[in-house]
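User: For my dataset I need records formatted as: sequence, then structure tokens, nothing else. Please produce one.
Assistant:
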Amino acid sequence: MASGAPVIAERPSALALAAALATPVFRIGGEGPAPEPGPVPMFETLTSGSTGTPRRIRRSHASWIASFDVNAARFGIGPGARVAVLGRLVHSLSLYGAVEGMHLGAEVHLLDGLRPDRQRGALAERRVTQLYATPAQLRLLTDHSGPVCPDLRLILVGGSKLDAALRAAAGKLAPAARIVEFYGAAETSFITLADTTTPEGSVGAVYPGVELELRAGQVWVKSPYLFDGYAGDPGGAVLSEGWLSVCEMGRLDAGWLYLSGRAGRMVTVADQNVFPEEIEALLAALPGIRHGAVLARPDARRGMVLLAVAQGDPAQEAAIMAALRAALGPLKAPKALIWRADWPTLASGKTDLSALERETSWPI
């Protein structure tokens, strides 16, 4: 980081990141003027941008530090641990993992500059013990043959739900690792944790220190981990009297949270409310699907009509469409499946839905 400059590169060295953490305020990612210092140490980073342009968010150091001690006790992160992150630090999950490791005295490995096969080799060679990753990053790791990682004791997964096949592949990559999923957002940090004790389809139970309410089916949270607000253009989160919602819909059952999807993506098909995320979860679990997404367009008869877009094995199309119709019924199931050779992703590793919308030609 240049002397006195609170803006650091999107791929900083560990030394540059450590120097930034010692300043009153810094920013990683995004455009606009450098952030101004405030009464407490702050930083700016970006949302994932999966449904639009990534937004700059502003949060205090304390909002992340509050969860560091929780994770140190729960996951054994601290002196002697070797923590790795796979993505660019402009993505909040990777930035969080790196900063947490530094704060707790762990050895931190930034592997973003390596190809997935070399990342896998580095995890084994460097005897990494804790890994922060998205499902998309894990899929790239497990798609490549390479060494097993016997020293990995924890894989902490965020960004989207793990499907059963990917969980099994991650288990083969790291046989001794505990695989823990968390649900949250750049604006909220941790909301819930899920592991092998979590019921099928749930994103887990509340993370320590989090209060959670369902208001008309919308998830609201209150915790010491919330962001302070958007820096620049407003985003999708709503703040009200200390509570925050990223407009996700769901339900609680015996203390377990189940998600339906974002309110902004919900569509009405033949008078039924449909969340594309629910169909995408079904797609991800089917043989022949590497990546999948569901798009919608207006339809005079049904209100909206759905289309599935996928990367994978086109020879499985008939079986995939039959499975979707059996699970969803003829009205909610996508009417067609479009295959892509490539797959657009964001810095976070999530699907770039805006790019899919722009690039997909509708056959129906």
